[in-house]
Write a structure and sequence with these properties.
single chain, alpha+beta, five-stranded antiparallel β-sheet, three-stranded antiparallel β-sheet, 17 helices, flat, disordered N terminus, disordered C terminus
Length: 672
Amino acid sequence: MLPSDPITPASADVLPPGNPLVPIPMTEQARTRWKGDLDRANRRRQVFEPAWERNLRAYTPDPTNTEWGSEINPGIDFYQVEQKKALLFFETPTVICTPEDDAPPQLSPQISAHQAKLNQRIGRKGLDCERLMDKVMFSILCPAGMGCTKLGVTRITIDVPLLHPPDHADPQLAGQPQTDPQGQPLTAPVPVYQKIFWEHFSEKKILIPTNFHDTEFDKAPWLAMKFSIPTRLAIREYNLPPDFKGNAGQTKDQVFALPGVKNDDDDGDDEMTTGTEVFYKAALYDDAVYHPDHLRQLVFVDGQEDPVVHRDCPYQTFQDGIYQPDDPMNLVGNPIHIFTIRDLVDSAYISSDCTITRPLVNELSRFRTQLIENRDAGTSVRLCDEATFTPEIMAKVIRAPWGAMIPIPNLDQNRVPVVEVAHPVYSRENFTAQETIERDLTKVNTISANQTGAAQDTTRSATEIQTVQKNADVRLSKERNRLLSGFVQGVTKLDALMKRFETPQGQQPISGYTYDIKPDSGMHVDAAADRKFAVDRLNILLKEPHINVDYLLTELAPKLHLDPTKLIIQPPPPKPAPPKMSFIIKGEDLNPLAPQYPNMQEALKEAGIVLTAVPITPSLVQNAAMSEPMKPPKGARLAPHGGSPEMADKVNQHVADQSGQTPHQGGMAGVQ
């Protein structure tokens, strides 16, 4: 966990006159009230911690328990948590920045560029939000029903003396240090390290007001988290006295006690300092503040009575102590960001999936344990004739892979020397009870054999499997949408931090857009189905005149394992279109004797139609056929039409001729 204080002071070894991190004074009455509220919130959370730890013990084994495995654990918590993690959040989704209706059109390229930067920041090479959400979903599904994260900036600065500019009116002062009226040198903090973070922290560190009964945590009057950092760092971060002593061995209540694992700080080898960081809505505690989004930061360090930090939120813009709501660099909402996938009426604490299924899982474990005990008790027992099975005979028992052979002298077939005692048999009803428990688990978690990839015990029709899968997807989609909604809210806060701390000085940050998630991103999509969809989409849209084909090919190329930069080439510049012309051809225009015939012959040649040259002879001129069409002699008869060609035999007709049966029907009447 990064240091709680996002912006470190300039001086580390010398305490300045007055703590610059506490510009807002706090009365003793207010301090007592705050510590009481934090203590009550801590006790409220501790009510739920035993159930959280039981879930962890069922999920993971105790590495120091040599008897591990003697008790039956079907591993239901493990496979359901891991499978549902993949179903709800498979990979980091693509964030889309959509320009608002009143945004100028010229901002679209800038918004697109900022969208690419934002997606790169939440990707694997940036904050790796996929790994972050894996931790969040484990907290939601297994121990606590909530996933706690915090956004902020770690910023380390040093004080640098301010110098007079080179073009100062007094040449003797140019380049010299600036001083205040008392002659003290003026300095300015210069950042030497800066990093925006979005991190998960343990649910045992969260503090929620006891009078807040909802899961929309940005509406809470305050949210707080406990922290622990090395004492040396705490002295520098919070301007503590150089001889301040931390709380060695006092941080174990901030982490889960995993089975068989001893916390490293129990021995006090590394001196640590613990404390509590609070972000609260100032309008609820200060009569001089009116805007509900005005946040303040408050930090208490264990061992110090007074707060070490009490100031306006460093992630918001203020002018003379007044919150500026129109600044696009403002973080709206609490930097402590909590995820949930469901609600519980009048409660800020939600039961996890493992908590809900704990009775069923314990019942199934007990049932399986009883089954093993019954099988052990049902070991075959035999009664034998003591007179026949003497110790000498028992010593001669011959062991074999398929059983034992007992040599008996003078064996009497009518008098059996060995009789097997009847042992108990587990009835079918007991296994039916196990199936009932497993069906109940499926109803609770919507994780059946289909979702886990395991073969079913019974044969189901494709229609039934499809119906079951469809109904399961409805609930999973609802929970996924809730998770993605929280993710978008977190990205909104992250974007505000990026604008505030990464926008060059003197430049206005880009604004005028909303946030959304690209459809189907963040979930697992079958590669073959996704590839087919991309190809079909290209075939459908390719002939549309207003479609950007380069965009379609860029989306399709990775699915075909191709490099878009090598696949797409720039088309040659368009050539000017040839002039278009039209003309009408009449029959007399094709008469070789017509004066326009040579012109028509050239025009048709340009169009690709070549007329055979006809020499003009005296007989052609005198031929009456050129002036009057030929007519049949009077009284002559035209030859009759030959009729249509014979139809080819149908394939089905052959079947009828040979078998006497028409296709798909019974035999033909009267045909033998």
